[in-house]
Amino acid sequence: MExxxxxxxxxxSHITFFVIAVVLFWIKTYAAYQIEFKLGIDNNLxxxxxxxxxxxxxxxxIGLGLLSKKHTKKxxxxxxxxxxxxxxxxxxxxxxxxxxxxxxxIMQAKTNAGQLGDSANSLMSxxxxxxxxxxxxxxxxxxxxxxxxxxxNRKSYKIVLLFAVTVFLFNLxxxxxxRPQLLTRSFDRNYLxxxxxAYNFTILDVIQxxxxxxxxxxxxxxDITTVENYRKAHxxxxxxxxxxxxxxxxxIYVSLxxxxxxxxxxxxxxxxxxxxxLNSLAHxxxxxxxxxxxxxxxxxxxxxxxxxxxxxxxxLNQGAVFINKAQNTYQATPAILGQKGYTSAVFHGNYKTFWxxxxxxxxxxxxxxxxxEYYNMSPExxxxxxxxxxxxxxxxMSMLEGLKQPFYTKFITxxxxxxxxxxxxDTNFPAGDFGDSVVNNYxxxxxxxxxxxxxxxxxxxxxxxxxxxxxxxxxxxxxLSENHNKAMAKVLGVPKxxxxxxxxxxxxxxxxxxxGVKGGVQHQFGGEVDVRPTLLHLLGVDTKDxxxxxxxxxxxxHRNWALFRNGDYVSxxxxxxxxxxxxxxxxxxxxxxxxxxxxxxxxxTELQMSDAVVNKDLLRFYTPKGFxxxxxxxxxxxxxxxNTKQPKVQTTGAQ
Length: 655
Ligand code: GP9
Ligand code: MN
Fold this sequence. Notes:
Layout: H1 2-11, H2 14-36, H3 44-62, H4 72-97, H5 103-112, H6 117-122, H7 133-143, H8 156-178, H9 189-196, H10 198-218, H11 223-234, E1 250-256, H12 276-282, E2 287-290, E3 293-294, H13 301-311, H14 321-324, H15 333-338, E4 343-348, H16 357-364, E5 368-370, E6 382-383, E7 386-387, H17 389-401, E8 407-412, H18 437-462, E9 469-475, H19 485-492, H20 499-504, E10 510-513, E11 520-522, E12 526-527, H21 531-538, E13 562-563, E14 569-570, E15 575-577, E16 580-582, H22 597-615
Parallel strand pairs: 1-8, 1-9, 2-11, 3-12, 4-5, 4-8
Antiparallel strand pairs: 2-10, 6-7, 9-10, 13-14, 14-15, 15-16
Residues 301-302, 350, 354, 385, 412, 414, 417 line the site of (2R)-2,3-dihydroxypropyl phosphate (GP9).
InterPro entries: Alkaline_phosphatase_core_sf, LtaS-like, OpgB/LTA_synthase_biosynth, Sulfatase_N
Main location: membrane
Active site: 302
């Protein structure tokens, strides 16, 4: 009898409810880790850490309910729901970006709100209700078995807190053992989640963001001197054979949405080329085509690529520069060329607030921004994020022709965007058959983009612009994330995607067409950061006085490597992935790993220098010779009725 009574009392205590809540939360989180995230678990210690890392968060947060005598269960359920929501948001985000949500990403969500809807829907499934089952079970338990349970005392939270901290320190200690400097060298969010868990990651992220915003406040003009010295030591002098060869010409940049280099010359099983136009351009001998060129974007995707190309600075480790650092001082290409008589404009079939472009373009010095408001956004003309590439280029022509020459322009395509679905009437190209609908679709949308580009080139030839314009085409970032590696192995005809193949999949094509200049296939390694000095040198603008991190791809002294924003590295001899060095040709680990440690130092310094410029807003302390600092307030994009460079007007500020 007594035993049964004890059991009954035990069952009905809040502590039991709490323990059940933590255990369910733990199981759910661990299941999510296994099902949703590819964290690269290498050894038993990592397996163990992954299994225990949700415990401290569960104890700490759900335990907060114990502080209230009256509403213990209610608070625990609410906290459980909030944590479940955070986990689920990370899951949906990861399904697309292969990455975790950070504070700046949340800021972005505000800016991009409403337009991400379609992508998000395609990433969710009814089965996802599983990630909320623990919350549902707790609600049922609270209303039934534990209905009458009442709290005994509040002291229990102190014990729980002590327990949570101990578990966390134990967890951190083991993690640091496996990965020294885990917290300081946080280039890769996967590592933090793998070792410390998705929830602790968010806490660390919040702390880190508070730290970065204080960096700007604490920076002073002396900070730029270190960067200036670094820059001087790494300046690559132009190649006299190309310097000024495009002087006075117009410039057209085309951002090829999600377009990866493996597509060039790729043939479908029936022998059909996917991108015949881009293939012919790669081999026409009159265009520079770079076949070892890498994207270096982070969470800011398209906008990060834009940032790299026009500033020759690296984007941020977290969030988009376009969103978080749009108030900084820049010395970007549109501003530089603007002071040399160029008119600058962007053409994009999406609304101007996306990626905070309308604010950032002012800081970059763009005279005009032809956004969705200038296009016929009828239902048959739009898909995904905006205008389909064919009507987009077609409608852009009259606006382009209306610009005062010489012009510096950027076209941002959209059709080849995840999930790469096409309207039936827009394609008769066969989809792939690789057992993954996203990968299968990719071939159709890339083919469509290729046709649109051909049409654009034909239009430029027809109106005579082609012969006086430098045209730069670049893939902005990968389109098929690691989540599709199984199908990608089939696409590439390899048994599996190894770390070196995966690094190679980050290649995007770069083309530079200069009228009257012989081009050809270029094998040197480089990345998006290198394009600005290459272009400015072609236009006859020396870059010596600019704070930039790229190296002219056509220079004889071009450095032959590229780094990725997560700290990985590629060169003809070495591929570094997550701190391990591989032979790029065989994919095997290189013997004597420690011999390559200097690569790590080289890339860390380079990223730190660039990050200092961006995070501390250092360009406000530096003006290159011959450059006049621009005032973003002088640029406004008022839509089709009043879009022009304006005298000082009130700014709205998007943040
Ligand atoms: C949206 C377009 C796509 O305007 O640039 O952005 P992405 O999702 O590729 O960054
Ligand atoms: Mn993009």
